Amino acid sequence: MPTSRTSATLRGADLQLTRAGAGPAVLLVHGSVVGAERTWRHQLVLAEHYTLLLANRPGFGASPPLPGGDFEPEARLFAELLGDGAHLVGHSYGGVIALYAAGLRPQAVRSLTVSEPGCLRVAAGNPAVDAQIAGGELLFGSAGSFSPLEFLRAFRGGVGSTHETPDELAGELLHGARLLMRERPPWEADPPLALLRAAPFPKLVLSGGHSAVFEAVCDAVADGIGAQRGVIAGRGHTIPATGAPYNARLLDFLRESERREQARPDPGLARRLKASAAAARGRASDRTCARPAAAGPRARSRALRAGAARRRSPRRCRRRRRPKAAGPPIAG
Fold it and tell me: What is the 3-state secondary structure (H, E, C) of the chain?
């Protein structure tokens, strides 16, 4: 198992990253309990059109763990993985990470898609949401009194996950449940909605049509960031597991985003043209105002002697001979 790292020393390049396909980059951020390979297994067909970047969050797969999962330091890691620019897609806890990562490097985000992010407090005041937060705080506050199996069942029941939970946990699932018990609750998140709303890239918020809580949360996020809104039903909270419906909606959105990006004017073009015109005017002014350098004493003396010599020498001008005027015509 990789050695635990602090958030200050861990870098995006330290995370286990799998690349698949060719084309524009799409960075996928998974949620809690299971890693990138299982979360996004139904999206691998999109590698026909895009380069999929499947990164395991700290503690998952071969990625070094943090003392506890936390959307804020993890967002910095995924912001680094955006590179020179990528579409950003996050699900559940990964949706919260994606919102924060997009706020850290909006210039590197080509589009943002989140499905049922766990930032419940964006819809605080809604009775169903407030009750869900209260239940979650009770669960996480007493995590030490639950076995990993009990905790995972309670968590999955609360969020509406359709993943099957076996009677006994082992391997990746047991490890994921233990990570979950140390994870910072996502409802503590306060994502930078206003900043994201001002960012020019397109946004999409998806829900699963199974929970009044997540419908309210997704509505609030979409309103806050100025996003398109969609519902993909059939697998509850586990929206990427719908496969074809999710892929079709995401593919349409990515392509639409790229068309809008190509049509969007270059914000630096006007500035560069203005600077170029100013430079050209400056060069023209320099040529107009330029004067020959002042001549030295010897040069002035030579010029004076030459002028005097020209004045003393007689002018020899060849006079043009005028043609003789013709006489009157001779009458015939």
Answer: CCCCCCCCCCCHHHCCEEEECCCCEEEEECCCCCCHHHHCHHHHHHHHCCEEEEECCCCCCCCCCCCCCCHHHHHHHHHHHCCCCEEEEEECHHHHHHHHHHHHCHHHEEEEEEECCCCHHHHCCCHHHHHHHHHHHHHHHCHHHCCHHHHHHHHHHHHCCCCCCCCCCCHHHHHHHHHHHCCCCHHHCCCCHHHHHHCCCCEEEEECCCCHHHHHHHHHHHHHHCCEEEECCCCCCCHHHHCHHHHHHHHHHHHHHHHHHHHCCCCCHHHHHHHHHHHHHHHHHHHHHCCCCCCCHHHHHHHHHHHHHHHHCCCCCCCCCCCCCCCCCCCC
Q: How far apart are CA 107 and CA 261, in angstroms?
A: 12
How many of the other CB atoms lie within 10 Å of CB of 172? 15
Q: Domain spans of the chain?
A: 12-122+186-263
pLDDT in tens, 210-233: 999 999 999 999 999 999 999 999
Tell me the CATH number of domain 12-122+186-263, given options 3.40.50.1820, 3.50.50.60, 2.40.180.10, 3.40.50.300. 3.40.50.1820
Calculate the CA 69 to chain-centre distance: 23
- Does the pTM exceed 0.90? no
Tell me: the pLDDT tens digits for 14-32?
999 999 999 999 999 999 9
Question: Any idea which of 162-171, 189-198, 281-290 has the lowest mean pLDDT?
Answer: 281-290
Question: ∠ CA(37), CA(148), CA(56), 5° rounding?
Answer: 20
pLDDT > 50? residue 326: no
Residue 263 confidence class, pLDDT cut points 50, 70, 90? confident
